[in-house]
Amino acid sequence: MSQTEGSRRRVRLDLGYRGTDFHGWARQPEARTVQGLIEAGLETICGTPVRTVVAGRTDAGVHARRQVVHLDITDAIAARLIGRSARTAGDALAARLRGALRHLGADDIVIHAAAEVDAAFDARFAAVSRRYTYRIADPYSFLDPLAAGHTTVSKEALDAAAMHTAAQEILGLHDFLPFCKPRPESTTIRTLLDCTVTRDDEDIIVIDLRADAFCHHMVRALVGGLMKVGTGAWPATRPAELIARAEEGSTDLGPMFVTPAHGLVMEHVEYPPPREWQARAERTRARRDTEPVAD
């Protein structure tokens, strides 16, 4: 973006999307992606390319109920977006971006809100945690056809209590290498803050996970491991045992069982109070400057 149009303003953009028809978040040549459409819409309303930074990149087919990005615009662009209205720059950007996305045929993206924030806000590095849920229907479940697009089906009955027991044994700071697809120069050490396995009112199994960040495929591989426990193929101790092996330096960790993408939903991204944004971003960037924060 040209620097001659005035000072820059940082905007936090909150959005959600149905991931079914997307090739993931990240912009790709000749592929329909969430970032590609968001940035196309922003270019339309701003008159210049605008780059976005996302809290967590999602894979093809993964949904997001609440995703967060940040972007920068100049004062001149903000003034054009506001026009003669009494709206804030954030409200004007959100309204115009909704219109641009409708024009682009992106009815599977929802813009929740946009607001100006301090330049210290970083959607990726200032985040404290990310939360995902994964839904599974087994023979005990009622599979609502309206929810089938974000629910994985297991032909085998699953023991949700055993899955929950196994989940409690892997909480905390660990090397999750057995449940990650490592990327070059990245760490597989993460802090799993919460992981619960319950059945809802329709006996759908809901796995709710929250961590400081997730490695590539980590959520779906953890779910795959817990499903192995649920079918009885693995004892409830196996996921923790695999993590212990990784932390001892073993490379004999067996195959990963990565579940289908469509059962996964990014639910929420948590941030500290504004006064802590800069310090949080600096600490996180020092640890993960070369890594994506994603599933």
List key phrases describing it.
alpha+beta, 2 domains, 295 residues, Alpha-Beta Plaits, 7 helices, isomerase, PsdUridine_synth_TruA_C, ten-stranded mixed beta sheet
Report on this structure.
The protein starts with 7 loop residues before the first strand and ends in a 7-residue tail after the last helix. Strands 1, 2, 3, 4, 5, 6, 7, 8, 9 and 10 form a 10-stranded mixed beta sheet that branches. It folds into 2 domains: 8-116, Pseudouridine synthase I, catalytic domain, N-terminal subdomain (Alpha-Beta Plaits), CATH 3.30.70; 129-271, Alpha-Beta Plaits (2-Layer Sandwich). Helix 2 packs across helix 3 (89-103). It has 295 residues and is of the alpha+beta class. The model is unreliable at 289-293 (pLDDT under 50). The protein is globular. 27% of the residues lie in helices and 25% in strands. InterPro entries: PsdUridine_synth_cat_dom_sf, PsdUridine_synth_TruA, PsdUridine_synth_TruA_a/b_dom, PsdUridine_synth_TruA_C, TruA/RsuA/RluB/E/F_N.
